[in-house]
Amino acid sequence: MFSSQEQLDKKTGEYGIGRFNYLQSLVTEFQDTDSNESKQQIIANLANFAYDPINYGHFQVLNIVDLFLDTLEEPDEKLVEYAIGGICNCCLDKKIKQQIIQHEGVKLVAGCLSSPNEETVLSTITTLMYLTTPESKKEITALPIVECMLRFSEANNKRLSNLAKVFLKDYCSVSQLDAAKQIQQQMSGLSQSSEDT
């Protein structure tokens, strides 16, 4: 359930730490710690705060979305999972969506499609759909992404398969699908000929 500022003030009390200060302390702790486990916990906490639009003003001031985007390039799979989850939770907000698109976030997000972590891939597909605007659609439906979604649509994993099918149906044109299928046929032809030799 979303909070109002009044409800937050009641929870924290007259001398409470306050939401902004708490989020600021999490960001500072993330930057100061060398412990991977602590970083995972902090990013997971920030991702949970990304559910509530009342926090988005604080996110902007504290550059939390940029922190999520930077974390997508970390080698730790759990950190990436929580960071893409945080982006997915807040990227429907117009200002945050624009910020992500303007900071080359689509490219960073799309890079998570190759993750071995199922939750990361599911959040990534959802995030790409949420980030689609007239400005970003060309990048989001680029041939490599459409071809990747075609592969996912044939996966045994129903969650992955169904989400990829929604992406293909709702965001891709017939010509984009045809071009991606053509690439798949060429690739299967190449692998077939290498097996024959």
UniProtKB/TrEMBL annotation:
Q: Where are the transmembrane segments?
A: none
Q: Which residues form a coiled coil?
A: none
**Domain of life of the native organism:** Eukaryota
Protein name per UniProt: Armadillo repeat-containing protein 7
Q: What is the lineage of its organism?
A: Eukaryota, Metazoa, Spiralia, Lophotrochozoa, Mollusca
